[in-house]
Amino acid sequence: MRLLSSAGFSLAIFLAAPAFAQDRAAGSDDDVHTGDPIIVTAPYVRSLDILGNVSVLEGDELARDIRGQIGDTLTRQAGVSATSFAPGASRPVLRGFSGERVRVLTDGIGSIDVSNTSADHAVTIDPLTVERIEILRGPAVLLFGSQAIGGAVNLFDRRIPRKVPADHVHIDAIGGYATAANDRNIGSSIDVALTPQIVAHLDGSWRKTGDARSGGFVYAPDIRDDLLHLAEHEVEEGHLDEAAELTADANRRGKIPNTASETWTAAGGLSLINDGGQLGISVSYYDSKYGVPNRPGTEHHHESEEEGEGEEGHDHGEAPVTIGLKQWRADLRGEVELGDGFFDKLRIRAGFADYEHTEFEGDEVGTVFTNQGVEGRLELAQNDRGGWRGASGIQYSHRDFNAVGAEAFVPRNLTDQFALFTLQEWTLGSLGVEAAARYETSDVRAPALGIARSFDTFSGALGANYEISESAKFGLSVARAVRAPSAEELFSNGPHIATQSFEVGDVNLKREASWGAEASFKVKTDAFSLSLTGYSNWFDNFIYSEATGEEEDELPVFQYLQRDARVWGFEAEASARLAQIGGFNIVGDVVADMTRAKIKGGDHVPRIPAMRVLGGLEAQGERIDARAEVEWTDDQTRIAPFETATKGFTLVNASISWRPLPDTKNLTLSLAANNIFDIEARRHASFTKDYVPLIGRDIRITARASF
Fold first, then answer.
1. How far apart are CA 453 and CA 531, in angstroms?
2. What is the rounded distance in angstroms from the CA atom of residue 313 to the CA atom of residue 250?
3. Which of 377, 370, 358 is nearest to 400 (CA)?
4. Which of the chain's ends, N or C, has fewer CB atoms near its CB within 10 Å?
5. For the whole prediction, is pTM greater than 0.85?
6. d(Cα 566, Cα 517) in Å, to the nearest integer?
């Protein structure tokens, strides 16, 4: 039987459009999860590894690495760092790219929040509700939008069920406790087969943390020196109490002030699934409140609109800043089987979100950010024709962003984007070829300023890989990527309390374009795997934010600039079965990555992660896995003007997982110790790294169940 009547389904197609929906959700082997090693982002190609470099995080590995925000969850993956603005706000950094060059997706469409606007804005996705994460790097991610020029992180949940549980009911749950921030968390979901074709889904999550505890000093040496210098000045003035307070602040250890958070989510979904395809909807709610750490010595004031010219405004920095955000979201996903003709499937994917984000200064409302957005994709996947397969489609998004308050650094703006895209793959014996193309038009408007900009962009990529043997292959790709400047890059002009900066855009920014080349070598056998990737990007009109050395409203000024630039680096991953001792396989693995980025003329691009190597040794048994690992991060001295260097660090971590039930996939209990030696560590990619270090010694207990 077909999924819906032709009239009803035509209406659904008219109102929405699809993402690269996954055919099946992967995880443990049971009636809902599949365990299949596939890349579900693009099921119409073999592996999406000709034009892309893909990593997958799921199951026990995801449970081990899970943190409050998606950025911190992914930092063990090759080529991935995080903004780590605060424990409550952390976005992924891929190959040194962040913000407008990295898209965070939910099953192929955007998170529809304002996390791209500023580093202090959280991503409205709770990792506790996610069952699979795919990290995509390279030119293939252009299929998701010009904002994915640096990469994309695609997260999958089951809020719109894809499969009917064989036992009628399926339950997943995860919960844990971590000592460094008194982190208590729990998430659970249930899928119920209401009929042989209709599945209902409910899920929810809750996380509450106290202030995070650091290893070593809270503040970096430059800030500590400034505070001690101020203390000396207070002594000279005879202000001994103030001097003692400044000295104590400079020597602060332990808890990082104002880093507590509380987040909860709830969602429900319904799917119709049969031989003709599937159609489902979901509604979800995300609510979070988290602190924004204050940089010492950044108190400032400004005049409010109601105050006269000679009147003093109110001080910032005296009251703690917290952020409260909430988002309502509705999603639709559909898939129709088209038979054995030229096209295999028609996929639709759409989402709508209503977002509100409030910055509180103590108990007072500071600035309120709102965003209403819609995004949709429609995609036609082709049947395999003698080794030729692929998909083509359209994509549309609308964003209505506004900020109201004394520090609304961006005026109300509207952004509309429309795109046509295609990805085609040919397999000719040992040779695989992929080609991708995307045309996109962007309209960005700020009605209050009377400014409207329109941009047309075309991006394309061509790649090939050759199977040297059944276990080894070599790949090469080239790409031309073009990105329109965002509203924040164009229209910012004002103080931003959370980032403690004065941000200035440029309404005359041009399109950003790059040529990119990527080469890879991959080997995979039963006992050994190796992946080596090198990449280089040459940018025309690269857009970046840099400190100018000036002050406005007693805040450092950060100006969006545009110059030619080059970004290059490598990623390496290797794993080998070293021995078998008793019932345990002894496996060693290593991950290494490096990114370099320079502006034409000699300056370095700001906040580029330092070189990193992570190596681990793991004993894998039927019921028990034990792991020890060491992560070394180099000093980062390749810095932009007015940027501070970051000292390198070495972290030592260990974990053990136990599956006590006969069906080992159903229940996992884990104990992990991270940063065992309680050292002081800072991520250079973080805007707040000089006063928000990584957490110190952290003992984590996690239970994960699936029945």
1. 42
2. 28
3. 370
4. N
5. yes
6. 12
The rounded distance, in Å, linking the Cα atoms of 514 and 659 is 48
Ranges of each domain in the chain: 6-218+256-303+313-706
- β-pairing, 413-428 vs 388-405, is antiparallel
Altogether, the residues listed in the chain come to a count of 707
- DSSP characters for 427-470? EETTEEEEEEEEEEEEEEEEGGGTEEEEEEEEEEEEEEEEESSS
Question: Residue 450 corresponds to which amino acid?
Answer: G
CA dihedral sign of residues 37, 268, 669, 612:
positive
Distances (CA, A) of 431 to 359, 463, 473, 475: 54, 11, 9, 10
E-strand stretches of 220-293: 253-255, 261-274, 277-292
- Fold of the 6-218+256-303+313-706 domain: Maltoporin; Chain A (2.40.170)
Calpha distance 39→529 (Å, rounded)? 18
CB atoms within 10 A of CB 452: 12
Instruction: Please state the φ and ψ torsions of residue 566, each to the nearest 5 degrees.
Output: -135, 135
pLDDT in tens, 618-655: 999 999 999 999 999 999 999 998 899 999 999 999 99
Please name the amino acid found at residue 603.
Answer: D
Give me the residues of the chain with pLDDT under 70, please. 1-40, 43-49, 139-140, 297-318, 498, 664
